[in-house]
Amino acid sequence: MNVWIAIGVTAVGCYLVKYLGLLVPAGLLERPLVKRLAALLPVALLAALTAQQTFGDGHHLVLDARAAGVGAAALALLLRAPFLLVVAVAVVVTAGVRALGG
């Protein structure tokens, strides 16, 4: 039963946050700083999530096949490869390092 209470509280909380966003005056949303933050915040959050999932394991820092895959993807991006090729390179390098025992 505690799980359902948590789900209900989370749903209500999400609804309230969305409702509060609708109450923000339009003039505030048109400010250059707010526009800049709204453009950059998703990128920063995605980068942080990627770093945490790649290099973190609980409370420890790890360098394993995932790091090799991200490095290969970064190199492919620097070489201006198409997105699907970047993903394929990351998958192949990660699988290769894992197959070699890394």
How would you explain this protein's 3D organization?
The structure is a single chain. The termini are far apart. Helix 4 packs antiparallel against helix 5. 78% of the residues lie in helices and 4% in strands. It is built from five helices and two strands, in the order αααββαα. It has 102 residues and is mainly alpha-helical. The model has no long low-confidence stretch (mean pLDDT 93). A two-stranded antiparallel ribbon has the order 1-2.
Output the radius of gyration. 20 Å
Uncertain runs with pLDDT below 50, 5 residues or more? none
Shape: flat
Instruction: Please summarize the sheet with the most strands.
Output: 2 strands, antiparallel
Largest sheet strand order = 1-2
Question: Which percent bin holds the helix content?
Answer: over 70%
How many E-type strands?
2
Strand share of the residues?
A: under 5%
Class from helix and strand fractions: mainly alpha
State the separation between the terminal residues, measured CA to CA.
43 Å
Mean pLDDT value: 93
Order of helices and strands: HHHEEHH
Number of helices: 5
Concise overview:
The chain is mainly alpha-helical and 102 residues long. It has helices at 2-22, 26-29, 32-55, 65-78, 83-99, and strands spanning 56-57, 60-61.
Blueprint of the fold:
Blueprint: H1 2-22, H2 26-29, H3 32-55, E1 56-57, E2 60-61, H4 65-78, H5 83-99
Antiparallel strand pairs: 1-2
Helix pairs in contact: 4-5
Offer a few descriptive terms.
single chain, 102 residues, mainly alpha, two-stranded antiparallel ribbon, flat
